[in-house]
Amino acid sequence: MNVTLGILTREAESARKFEYIAETTLKEVNAYAASQGSSIKFDYKLYEESTSEAALNRLISMNKEMRVRLILGFDSLDMCMSLSYVLTNGMLFMGVPLYHCPSSALPDDVMFRIGPNLRLVHGAIAALLKEKGIERVLVIQSASSWGDEAKSVMAQALGEDRVLDIRYYLEASYYAEVANYTEVAIEAGDKIRQLSERYGQEHTAVLLMAGDEGATILREAGKVEGLLDVQWIEIDEAGYPLSKEWDPVRSGAFNANQNVTNEALRASLISINLANFTDNEVFSTLQAGYLASKPPPDDRRLSLRDASFRDSVWIACLSVLKAKTTDGNALKDVVPSVADGYVGASGEVVLDPNGDRTAVFEYHQVHQAEGSLGWVKIGTYDSLTGRVALDSPPT
Question: Model-level pTM?
């Protein structure tokens, strides 16, 4: 029996990587299936669709014309509109979007997300605030749904009246001009003084959700009296480290080359990052093979999303081999038992009750010792258990 995996992606870069990964991984899968005496052989069809409407139309044609029932990739939130079709047509989605769509994370559905969910960082923030006894927070964010969502989660954790925010604009919009970071820092200083005077500096913090402009904001904050006397916590708004190679000295609010050393130390700056899921031999082998492939790639290295896609191919095929069917309604009861605990290029897969990948986050604090400046890991957060474990701060 031949089983065709359908692969959908939004971007040409992802298509190039997914094609290589599907090609090489299915050779391994088919060799494994044959060694187990199975007559099932897997192949794939990959399509790059630039819009959610085109992706839905491709999905329909794959189902009706080729009877493709397993759809992998699904690497963009914009493809969420395809879920209702999958749910009603006996298909199964196994996606690797690193930002998961909250409205589609449903119990007992046929959508499994193998890429770790970056949105779970909000739990890591809330847990850190509780652990450090912080009761009031000022959120400084580039105007985005990502920052608004973080503010909402903080308000739920602490109370609506305990969370203030400043929204700045990276580009001119209909509503506002490009941000003046000096003015952002002055406004932040006013709000922090209000919170600190009423509730105490030790119970007040700044949450900075920024990209490369975060260094400028931190530098300007150093000119405002009292603003760096409270705890600062930062997250790269661009989704680091999911879009870049993991590096403990990183772009974002602080980088050793951006001359914000004193400011970062004064603020006891803590950075929250997704743990390094790809520090394993499986990923290293996959990466080396991709970089050596012909025609040569454009030097863009594989990411956590690509590693998760490779593991989704294995999990999908192993589930079919176990269930001996491609019917989505039947597979949805098999996939969790295959996926949960699977160890591959993206590390160990651990699913939540909705079939979505959980995540571990790490807390790093700026530290200077013997003239060397960098990050020191001070703890972790497990999204599955909600537990935070903090080490003693660096001295």
Answer: 0.89
